[in-house]
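Support request, priority: normal
Reporter: lab tech (M.K.)
Component: structure prediction queue

Hi team, I submitted a job for DNA binding HTH domain-containing protein from Ureibacillus endophyticus yesterday, and the status page still shows it as pending. I've pasted the exact input below so you can check whether something in the sequence is tripping the parser. The sequence length should be 83 residues. Please let me know if I need to resubmit or if it's stuck on your end.
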Amino acid sequence: MITPEQLYRSFSYIGKDVEENITVLKPMKDAVSEYELQLVEKALNLCKNKEEAAGKLGISLSSLTRRMRKIKQSKKDVKIDFS
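Reply from support: The job had stalled in the queue. We restarted it manually and it finished. Here are the results:
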C-alpha cells in the first residue's frame, strides 16, 4: 500500500503546491495544460536557447514555439485590476 507520505515524496519535484495540486481537483485537460506551460517556462529559463529547451523537453522546435504562443496568450488573458 502506498502512503500519502510516499506519494508526496514521489511528486515533490512538481513544486511547492504539490499538496494543493493533489487535493484540489480540476479537469484533467486544464491541469495538464497548466503543468505543460510551467514546464515550458522552466525549460526556457534554464536553457541557453529555444533549441536546447525543445531538446530537453523532447519536443520539436515548432511545438515549443506553439506552446510559447499559448503562454503569451494566456498571460494576455489575465487582467489585473489595481484600483
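Helices lie at 4-10, 18-23, 28-46, 50-57, 61-77. Residues 53 and 59 are 9 Å apart (CA to CA). Let us know if anything else looks off. Ticket resolved.
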